Amino acid sequence: MVDAADTALAALLAERVEDAVTRERGAYDRAAAPFGDAIVLFGAGGLGRLAAAALRRKGIEPLAFADNDRSRWETVIDGITVLSPANAAARFGGRAAFVVTIWGAVSSHRFAHSHEQLDALGCHRVLFFPTLFWKHADVLLPYYAIDLPHKLLEQRDDVTSGMALLADERSRAEYVAQVRMRLHGDFDGLPSKVDGVQYFPRDVYAARDDDTFVDCGAFDGDTLRAFVADRGARFVRYVALEPDPTSRAALQATITTLPSDLHARIGVSPTAAHSSRTKLHLSATGTAASAIMSGEAGGSIAIDCAPMDELPEVAGATFIKMDIEGAELDALEGVRHLIARSAPLIAVSAYHRQDHLWRLALYLHALRPDYRFYLRPHNEQGWDLVLYAVPQHRVVAGGHAGA
């Protein structure tokens, strides 16, 4: 039976690929006219600096940064002056496009907030960053879930199949909103984050006291802390995989703060989960953004990678969490035998790549057709979107979590 979500998705996917190509190429120029490459970047953090560096590679010099952080006002970042929003609007509001480059994983910010603020200050053209990134895709994309819209439409059959796997209406509504965001840059159309703790939502799966939990991308122990807060001592084993040395040291420090009777049940490994045994390079930033790189580069380190199917400590896993900055599909391939054999509960980040929204579920479904799939956003504006693959015996009472 076709419902509202099916109808909405079909409408989004009805656009022709060639029309999407035309749209994405001209979206920024249409929205920024008549100011074109006269740009003020609103947000002088990591995204703003990334955009500024890319624009310079294209021969475009941003007029200024604007930022709400008072400590940055009248400073210079990467050779660009940072102005207060009021000062930037007074100087450039009638002769430049203000491109909002605020998109942070720990922020409650939404584009509508910035649009309202800058509009009230008299800025004539206010745009969110995706259209600018589409225009300069060669130097700015892919960027997390943001990529060229036509690439999604080229996979429309898989996109449709991906939604068909979702088990509840909340997941299906989230999926449609996520597709809309990827196609049209509509972040404000995304639902707000759900209640509860990331990876441990009460409405998605039933907790068990005999879990062996494998944490791929353990970072500084943030998930470990949440796990112990949720479970206490009610688990068998916790295996943390973290290849970044700085993050791993912080993880070890976190372990020392936990009750001493848990220490022997928590193991830490520097190995990165991957599809094969190999050495790769990691941008070891000591932050949650540390990621495997395509080649050696400044600031990177060589790390050992291995399939989890070949790691003895993972053999009894009943719950696998993955947040590894876009390497999730490679890691899943490396644990496919365990998944096919034992169907562990899986919580995997689905926001690092445009196509992970559907490809993760399709891959897991091919291995275990009996999984039930749920999408939950645990942060605002697309961040911390998690796909839960739940084996039948762990589906919450009623069989339709959150329905």
Question: What can you tell me about this protein's structure?
Answer:
The protein has 403 residues and is of the alpha/beta class. Helix content is 36%, strand content 18%. The strands form three sheets. A seven-stranded mixed beta sheet has the order 9-8-7-14-15-17-16, sandwiched between helices. A six-stranded mixed beta sheet has the order 3-4-2-1-5-6, with helices on both faces. It has a four-stranded mixed beta sheet with strand order 10-13-11-12. The longest helix is centred in the N-terminal third of the chain and has 16 residues, at 17-32. It starts with a helix and ends in a 13-residue tail after the last strand.
Summarize the structure.
α1 packs parallel to α10 (169-184) and α9 packs across α15.
Alpha-carbon distance between the two ends: 16 Å
The percentage of residues in β strands lies in 15-25%
The strand line-up of the biggest sheet is 9-8-7-14-15-17-16
Number of strands: 17
Helix share, percent: 25-40%
Largest beta sheet, briefly? Answer: 7 strands, mixed
Radius of gyration, in Å, reads: 22 Å
What general form does the structure show? globular
Question: How would you classify the helix and strand content by structural class?
Answer: alpha/beta
Number of helices: 15
**What is the average of the pLDDT values?**
94
Uncertain runs: 399-403
